[in-house]
Structure formats: C-alpha cells, structure tokens
C-alpha cells in the first residue's frame, strides 16, 4: 500500500502570505478591516463583513482560551500517525477570533475546555504553524 | 388535495454490504429497475434522471455527468439528466431539482438513484479523498484535523455545556444499531446490538469518540421515482408526499463553524418545515435524522426539542429512541447502523422515509406513521435541510 507520507503544508493564498510571514518572525497576525473595523479570521481577499479591500494587520497578544478540543489516539490520516497522540483544539483568542490549532506542552489528559493558553510556533519546513501551550501563571 | 407538490411513488434498494463483486453499474441497474417497477410506471415514462453525485468515484461521476444513465437503462422518454453534488445534502437537492422539473412541465416522472462501491477504491485514494473533502487546506489540514476529530470537538463541547456523559453518548450507538439489526438493508442486519459497555470498551480513537462510535465504509445503492402530488393521488398507490422544507447554511469549513449557530439552525429549520407542512412536533411519527456520527444525535434531539436541554443523552440511554422505544428515531440506524456509503446514507434515509409512509418497513414499521421529519446535511455539515413528509 503506497501512502504519500509527506506532511501537508498550508496552501497559501496571496492575501494570507503576510500571516505566514508573521509567524516566521514569531508574530501572530490578525487581519483587520480599516473600513468597518472587523477582525477577520481566516484572512480573506476582501473583508467578509463589508467587502472593502482596505485590509490591515494587527499583532495578536497570543493569549487565548480553549473553546473545545479532541485528543487523537488512533485512526488519523497516515501522514500524522507518527505524531500520535496529539490534541487539536479551537482556541478563542483574546482579540475575538477562533482558530484551529494544536495544544502542546502538557499531558493531553490535563487539557480542559476554558484552559488559558498562549501561542508558540512549530516549524514544518518553511512554515511556522501557530500552536498553543498552557499559559504561564 | 395534498398540501405538497411532490411525491415519492417508487423505491428500490440493495443491501449495504462490503461486496466488491457488485459493480457500480450492477447496483445502478438493480435499484433503478426496482424503483421504476415499484412505481407502477413503464421505464419510458421516466422523463428525467437526477443523480446523487457518487463521492470519491471519479470515473463513475464522469460517466454519469456525461449522461450515461438514461442510455444504459434504455429510458426512451428522458428529456434531461443531471448529477447533483452538495455532499450529504445532495439527495435533498436532487428532490428539489425534480420538483422544479415537474412544476415547470419538463418531466412528469423523475428517477433519482445513488450508488457507492467503496470496496474497490484503492485505500490510499479513499484516505486522500476523505482527508481533504470539506477540510480547509490552509487552516485545518496542516494541523492533522479529521472528520473524527471535528466531531470529537463538537461532542466534547456539547457534553460539557449540556451535562451529557460518555455513557449516554455511547448509548446512541446502541439505539441506532437496535434499528439497524432489524433492517435487511443494513450492514448490521441480524448482528448483535452492542451494549453501552461494549461501545465504551472499544478503542478510543479521539476523545470522546470510540471505535464503535465511528463509521465503517460500505457499498450500497438505492433509487426513488418521484411524480407530482396530483399524479400520485391519481395513481392510487402508497406514496410519500413532501409537505414542507427549510434550510440554513452554516459555513464552508469546520474551522469557521459556530456550534451554537448549527444547533440553532437545526431548531429553526425544523420549525419552518413543520409550519410549512401545517403540523406540530407532537404529530411527527419518526425523526429520521442523518448526521453520519452518533455523537451528533443528542445535539440534534435537543435542538429539535424532542428532548429538553440536558436530557437527550438520558433519553438514548433509557432506550426511548431505540427499536420499541416511544420516540422512533433514525429507523435505519443512520450511518453507524448502515455502513457509510458516502452521500448514499442520506439517499437511504429518504427511501426509509418513503418506505415507512408507504407502510412497507416490515419489522421496523412504525404504527400509524403519518408524518416523518427528515433532514440532510451537506459535506462536512455546511448546512441543514429539514423536510416534512406525509402519507397524503
């Protein structure tokens, strides 16, 4: 059985390139709309609220809260089998957006809904994926 | 005079199994011929074919979307043929297309088939298809997300907010399989119904999803013949009449999905569909829910107000949704009881809705079945289409 075991990299769009450049610099950037002040995730070509193209970026604090999560022990795509167990979560950033991520830096059994977390970056080839770990303090 | 405009007048189905020796065209022939015979019509009375898109079967999709079905079956009266793809909501949209053709006079009788043969697709191709289908390649896939994990996240949040236990979640499988074990078309027909303990003892795939709470892929197929409600009345045969429908879109990728909005969408669409049908929830004989994963059923049961907040899990555990319970629920056992046949599970739920309303459901026949709530959801759950079907 021939499975392609290459780890997937984000398929970047022109309007999201700045986000990934930011992660390379250790920054978690959030797209914003200058016309209507919307905070946007994931990044778009036009503001999903008002269709303005006057888009900008702010740097997030990197702090957030676990909205929900699930820890995988088996039956994932073969490309990720070597990383089991791992925890995927939705994290609500303090700035008001929700993103999918991984929770690392603790025993998966300690992860709870409502847990405070902070961003860290995980390098895969030329990409630095925003992961989260338990917040200090 | 029926309140509806559309009626299912004929059904055909093959048992869901893992049977690579049955080819896709073998199944298509069988279900289409069964449905046309069941309708009492001649094959050349079929004036349109609207086909549920066969997911992950590229070659067959090409053949069907280039018009092969009417020619292969020798349907001499066909005026048009299309394939429709809205993921798991494809069947609802096939019915809508048929309804439009019938209303506009393009066709008086429309054939709607579906087929899936997963067992002959090379495993890497199946894995590649389901790993990416409906999953965002930038914001989800690189993290190692899967459908199982997304369902696990939804279930964990529901359990925390609604006080639902893992034992109660596991009991949904027992309920669904109790129906499936009595359905000759289910892959689990005649098989032991797993106890809650057995479900919970199966391997943990991802929290809180155990192996028995997941799906197995399978092969299967079914078909329906639909006509106008007016024509169905004249034909004086058992039929299922479409009485109401409502839909809400949620989002195109799970990372953007707001779980509260999804639950609210379930609730609103049910109310709107029932209002259109002119019925109350107390009059619904069967809640025929298509959710693919058992973990979604308590969420749906509370959203539909079949169970009060915090009680759905308990209702399942008490056996109220099981075969013989007082709330007939997903009477083919949804995908966990059926084997996952891609969009075929939603097609099979419509066939079941018709079968129950026609009084042809055998051991599973719900007494005095008058109105059925039937939903479908697209792809990774981008929408919910609620509909109400009745005997007249």
What does this protein structure show overall?
The complex is a heterodimer of chains A (about 140) and B (about 400). The longest helix of chain A has 8 residues, at about 15-25. With about 140 residues, chain A is mainly beta. Chain A has a 5-stranded antiparallel β-sheet. A 3-stranded antiparallel β-sheet of chain A has the order 2-1-3. Chain A has one helix at about 15-25, and strands spanning about 30-35, 40, 55-60, 65-70, 85-95, 100-105, 115-125, 125-135. In chain A, β5 (about 85-95) and β6 form a beta hairpin. The relative contact order of chain A is 0.20. Chain B is of the alpha/beta class. In chain B, about 40% of the residues lie in helices and about 20% in strands. Chain B has helices at about 25-40, 60-65, 70-75, 90-105, 125-130, 145-160, 165-180, 195-200, 230-235, 260-275, 295-305, 310-315, 335-340, 345-360, and strands spanning about 5-15, 50, 80-85, 110-115, 205, 210, 220-230, 240-250, 285-290, 370-375, 385-390. In chain B, strands 3-2-4-7-1-8-11-10-9 form a 9-stranded mixed β-sheet, with helices on both faces. Chain B has a two-stranded antiparallel sheet with strand order 5-6. The interface of A and B includes residues 100 and 129 of A.
Key terms:
heterodimer; A: 137 residues; mainly beta; five-stranded antiparallel beta sheet; three-stranded antiparallel beta sheet; 1 helix; 8 strands; 6% helix; 39% strand; B: 392 residues; alpha/beta; nine-stranded mixed beta sheet; two-stranded antiparallel ribbon; 39% helix; 18% strand; globular
């Amino acid at each position: 059985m021939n499975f392609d075991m290459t780890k997937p990299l984000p398929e970047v769009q022109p309007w999201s390139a700045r986000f990934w450049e930011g992660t390379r610099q250790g920054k978690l950037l959030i797209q914003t709309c200058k016309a209507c002040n919307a905070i946007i995730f994931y990044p778009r070509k036009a503001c999903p609220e008002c269709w303005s193209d006057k888009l900008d970026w702010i740097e997030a604090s990197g702090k957030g809260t676990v909205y929900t999560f699930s820890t995988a022990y088996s039956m994932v795509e073969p490309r990720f089998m070597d990383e089991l167990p791992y925890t995927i979560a939705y994290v609500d950033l303090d700035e008001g957006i929700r993103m999918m991520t991984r929770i690392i830096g603790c025993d998966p059994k300690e992860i709870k809904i409502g847990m405070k977390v902070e961003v860290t970056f995980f390098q895969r080839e030329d990409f630095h994926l925003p992961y989260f770990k338990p917040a200090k303090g | 005079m029926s309140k509806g405009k559309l009626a299912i007048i004929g059904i055909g189905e093959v048992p869901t199994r893992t049977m690579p020796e049955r080819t896709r065209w073998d199944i298509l022939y069988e279900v289409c011929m069964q449905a046309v015979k069941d309708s009492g019509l001649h094959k050349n009375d079929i004036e349109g074919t609207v086909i549920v898109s066969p997911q992950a079967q590229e070659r067959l999709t090409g053949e069907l979307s280039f018009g092969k079905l009417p020619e292969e079956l020798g349907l001499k009266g066909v005026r048009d043929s299309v394939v429709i793809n809205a993921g798991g909501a494809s069947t609802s949209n096939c019915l809508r297309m048929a309804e439009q053709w019938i209303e506009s006079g393009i066709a008086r009788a429309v054939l709607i088939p579906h087929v899936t043969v997963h067992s002959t697709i090379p495993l890497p191709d199946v894995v590649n298809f389901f790993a990416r289908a409906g999953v965002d390649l930038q914001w989800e896939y690189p993290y190692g997300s899967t459908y199982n994990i997304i369902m696990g996240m939804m279930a964990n949040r529901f359990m925390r907010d609604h006080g639902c236990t893992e034992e109660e979640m596991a009991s949904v499988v027992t309920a669904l399989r109790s129906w499936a074990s009595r359905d000759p078309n289910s892959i689990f027909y005649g098989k032991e119904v797993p106890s809650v303990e057995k479900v919970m003892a199966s391997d943990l795939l991802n929290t809180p999803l155990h192996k028995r709470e997941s799906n197995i892929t399978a092969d299967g197929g079914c078909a329906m013949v639909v006509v106008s409600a007016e024509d169905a009345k004249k034909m004086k045969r058992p039929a299922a009449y479409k009485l109401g429908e409502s839909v809400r879109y949620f989002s195109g990728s799970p990372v953007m999905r707001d779980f509260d909005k999804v639950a609210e969408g379930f609730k609103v669409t049910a109310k709107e569909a029932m209002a259109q049908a002119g019925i109350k929830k107390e009059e619904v004989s069967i809640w025929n829910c298509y959710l693919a994963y058992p973990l979604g059923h308590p969420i749906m049961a509370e959203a539909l107000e079949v169970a009060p907040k915090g009680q759905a899990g308990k209702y399942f555990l008490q056996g109220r949704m099981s075969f013989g319970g007082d709330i007939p629920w997903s009477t083919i056992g949804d995908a966990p009881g059926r084997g996952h046949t891609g969009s075929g599970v939603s097609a099979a739920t419509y066939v079941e809705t018709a079968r129950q309303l026609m009084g042809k459901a055998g051991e599973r026949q719900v007494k005095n079945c008058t109105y059925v709530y039937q939903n479908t959801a697209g792809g990774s759950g981008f929408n919910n289409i609620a509909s109400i079907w009745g005997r007249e």
